[in-house]
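Intended use. Records like the one below are meant for learning the mapping from a protein sequence to its folded structure. Do not use them to infer anything beyond what is encoded.
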Amino acid sequence: MQKFVLAAAATLFSSLAAAAYPDKPVTLVVPFAAGGPTDKVARDLAEVLRKNLHNQTVIIENVGGAGGTLGAARVAKAAPDGYTLLLHHAGFSTAPALYRNMPYKTLDDFEYLGMVNDVPMTLIGRPTLPAANFAELRKWIDANKGKINLANAGLGAASHLCGLLFQQALGVDMTTVPYKGTAPAMTDLLGGQVDLMCDQTTNTSTQIEGGKVRAYGVTTLKPLTTPGLAKLPTLDSQGLKGFNVTIWHGLYAPKGTPKAITEQLNAALRAALKDPEFIKREEAMGAVVITDARLGQAEHKKFVEAEINKWGPAIKAAGQYAD
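Structure written out for the chain above:
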């Protein structure tokens, strides 16, 4: 009888909390610097989430550092009341292999709210690189082994992960140059200080369409339909068979957030992802808004667990870790 009363009380508390939620601004933590592709997705999402959360303000808080683990830890330790959320990309699933001392448990310390998008990636080079296409690039790489610089936005960043798999696919080691964010990495690539970078279309499409970088291919198995990128061939079709890397984004809350609130957030997310303006903005960056089962909380978590199992062996084989 006592257990029944406690369960009923818990259900009532959850329902009352959800009925009042949200009655103040919601903070959406982005575990990377402002101005990067994940920050862009977060700011676009915040606007449409607001419309579906009683018009409460959704504040972006950038907590960069340690490949996104600092921002994720900030949310894991936050009060489980639905007022502190996390938007993270595929680095959420690679951190367990990259970092020996994690400040949280990826599968245990969060409530999974649903996926947001899939973002293809592109292989690009400095504008002065003497290779007009991927076939020429492979010859240039073979002729310059040990001299090639590959930029990324930091350990665990999307560009780091894509670059890691690119090197493994070619069987070539390059000098990786980590930056504190995507923006400075792109600046040095445009200036010719580094040779190559593999990064999200959310960050590279403008540079590619403007002809400011060399573009060698997309990392999906099928060509993109995004205007300006539709003519860019896949790396798979150019000899890197099976090369398929997309960087997804997902939404999370601290573990223990009442079920009624997580369900409300999931419903708000589903509504946000149907917003025509949001879809238009995502498609303009080459991102694909999620419409499949990964919108569900349970399926979202299953997907992340599968991604952990996928990336772990590749990262460990490369021997790239952080303390």
